[in-house]
Design brief:
Blueprint (H helix, E strand, L loop, with lengths): L2 H12 L4 H12 L4 H6 L12 H5 L6 H12 L8 H6 L4 H17 L5 H14 L6 H13 L4 H17 L16 H8 L4 H4 L8 H6 L10
Helix pairs in contact: 1-2, 2-7, 5-7, 7-8, 8-9, 8-10, 9-10
């Protein structure tokens, strides 16, 4: 963990920095990519494409871009935006940038909703990809969810197993220029990346959770195509 950057993150949050800046700094403070992942991301240094949500809403149903913006609309959120200062600061640290901007793409491509079980599946997928270090993170997450949402521990455990397996088999999503494939059918993008149909893979939907309602009142688990 980078304590200096962590303190910078706290100061940025308190000073009213954008959520994008804070999220990126937090990931950079807490996560250090392994050398293999870092090498695969060299070609993405300084890569900050902007997304036109209005144009994406006009794409045909079933395309990556249309399903991505459908997911965002269901949650009432928008893609992160970074300040020029943060872009310059992290231009040579593509891991933090790509993880921050592609998190919701992970949801859509792997087929996990935005509920607790869906988030558990995405974390497991990321660990399976080698982007996050250690299975200890999955054990910790399973324990936390078992305490706060025991009614869906089966869904959480299932999605963690499925997500980890999918992540191990798929290409590194952080290394893909997903923003340039928005017009393509979601099924074709999944096939090229080595991601199976979520329903066939066994992805389960999240249940309603008081913890999600408490901490994320605007989030509603959304069905993924």
């Amino acid at each position: 963990m980078n304590w200096k950057l962590y303190l910078d993150t706290i100061r940025a949050y308190r000073s009213g920095a954008s959520l994008g800046d804070v999220a990126l700094m937090k990931i950079a403070a807490f996560q250090t990519p392994n050398p293999e992942v870092r090498d695969q991301l060299k070609g993405l240094r300084g890569y900050y494409p902007e997304l036109d949500l209005a144009a994406m809403r006009e794409l045909p149903n079933g395309t990556l871009g249309r399903e991505y913006v459908r997911f965002l609309d269901a949650q009432g959120i928008e893609p992160f935006v970074f300040s020029d200062e943060v872009k310059a600061r992290f231009a040579n640290r593509p891991f933090a940038v790509r993880y921050t901007v592609t998190h919701d793409f992970h949801h859509v491509l792997a087929g996990f909703d935005a509920g607790l079980a869906g988030e558990a599946g995405v974390v497991a997928f990321t660990v399976g990809q080698g982007s996050f270090s250690g299975k200890w993170l999955l054990t910790l997450q399973r324990c936390i969810y078992a305490v706060f949402s025991p009614s869906q521990i089966r869904e959480v455990s299932n999605n963690m197993k499925v997500g980890y397996r999918m992540g191990r088999q798929a290409k590194l999503l952080l290394g893909e220029r997903l923003e340039e494939q928005l017009h393509r059918p979601l099924a074709d993008v999944r096939k090229d990346l080595g991601i199976p149909n979520p329903k066939v893979a066994g992805v389960r939907a999240s249940k309603e959770s008081w913890m999600m309602r408490l901490f994320y009142p605007s989030v509603k688990p959304a069905a993924i195509a």
